[in-house]
Design a protein that fits this description.
single chain, 343 residues, alpha/beta, Rossmann fold, six-stranded mixed β-sheet, three-stranded antiparallel β-sheet, 10 helices, 38% helix, 29% strand, elongated
Length: 343
């Protein structure tokens, strides 16, 4: 990846110190230079009033200004104005990451901020995705079956848009359940053709395997065979809890009620998934703990970037030198011809 940038600078800025004597010279020329006075006796100045400020006297002052301008341009030329074109070559070794997210109805349990397990996961994923810079990211969602929501891509805005619209299995009208083996195999399929040196799967679930045509052991072997590192995350507290159920009353209004639910996270399986593939297992059972987990993953799986910087300078002093020289020639030509003073 190559980045280009242009800046304007001065090669020898210390020559601007010459502006100080230039200011004193300008002050002397216009205000302190002795003026030769001559007199002519006339009876009235009335006829000369309309000619005040005209004639060669005005051009003499302009000629002095051109001389001062020529010196100023020469000072700028000595300071060497330049344009620096910097070319930054970045050798990026990006990662390929697939996020596998459980969207079973139990993700609606309200024991994680800001509202429930699913919304907490979506919010944390959005922050994690925003922190990546050169990694391809894909998203797989699963319940009783698995679907690829976004294949690995660098279009982070597309990923963020899709993640924000994730809903539960019931609302998406897909089979409910927790098919961990199928989800692992689907995530591995997204990474099998990856050319990246590091392949990472972030697996998030709040349950244990209870459906699907592929068992977790087979899914794990598939992921391991493709050299995929799994960071597994168990979401929510295990034990008796309540799951919200949404229905409509006779007037079409949405009504929320709760029914008892036994939440169980298979810590042993999730830990095995991480250990076998060289990843790490995390337990997100406290409010806001997902943010800390993804911060840890972000620090473990960083992108290697090597910078090589090349700078090309383009000089502009010639332009100022030529203008200053031309002004000087004009002033000398006028002084020796039309504005000449003397016999």
């Amino acid at each position: 990846m190559i980045n280009l940038s242009s800046t304007y600078l001065w090669g020898q800025p210390w020559f601007f110190l010459l502006i100080l004597p230039w200011v004193f010279l300008a002050y002397y020329v216009y205000f302190k230079q002795p003026k030769t006075k001559s007199s002519l006796a006339i009876s009235s100045l009335k006829s000369f009033k309309n000619w005040r400020g005209r004639g060669r006297v005005l051009f003499v002052q302009i000629n002095k200004g051109l001389l001062l301008a020529s010196l100023l341009f020469l000072i700028v030329a000595l300071a060497r104005p330049q344009k620096a074109d910097a070319k930054l070559k970045r050798n990026v070794e990006g990662l390929d990451i697939v996020i596998v997210l459980d969207i079973s109805d139990s993700m609606l349990i309200e024991d994680m901020k800001p509202f429930n397990r699913l919304e907490s996961a979506k919010e944390t994923l959005a922050r994690f995705i925003s922190q990546r810079s050169s990694d391809r990211i894909g998203v797989v969602i699963f319940a009783g079956e698995a679907f690829t929501l976004v294949p690995p891509t660098l279009d982070y805005q597309l990923i963020l848009d899709r993640v924000s619209k994730i809903t539960t299995a019931a609302r998406a009208r897909i089979k409910d359940g927790t098919a961990i083996g199928v989800a692992m195999a689907s995530g591995a399929a997204r990474l099998k053709d990856s050319q990246a040196k590091s392949r990472v799967m972030i697996f998030m679930t709040d349950g244990e395997n209870n459906s699907g045509t592929i068992d977790p052991e087979t899914g794990l072997e598939i992921a391991k065979g493709y050299g995929i590192k799994i960071y597994s995350i168990g979401i929510g507290r295990s034990g008796p809890t309540q799951i919200p159920i949404y229905t409509e009353d006779m007037f079409g209004n949405k009504v929320k009620r709760y029914q008892p639910f036994d939440s169980t996270v298979n810590d042993e399986l999730l830990n095995q998934m991480a250990t076998v593939t060289g990843g790490k297992y995390y337990r997100a059972s406290k409010e806001d703990s997902l943010a800390g987990i993804f911060k840890d993953i972000n620090s473990l799986e960083t992108t290697k970037i090597e910078d090589s910087k090349f700078v090309r300078y383009e000089e502009y002093y010639q332009l100022f030198a030529w203008v200053g020289f031309c002004f000087f020639l004009i002033t000398q030509s006028l002084s020796l011809t039309w504005l000449r003073v003397g016999p």
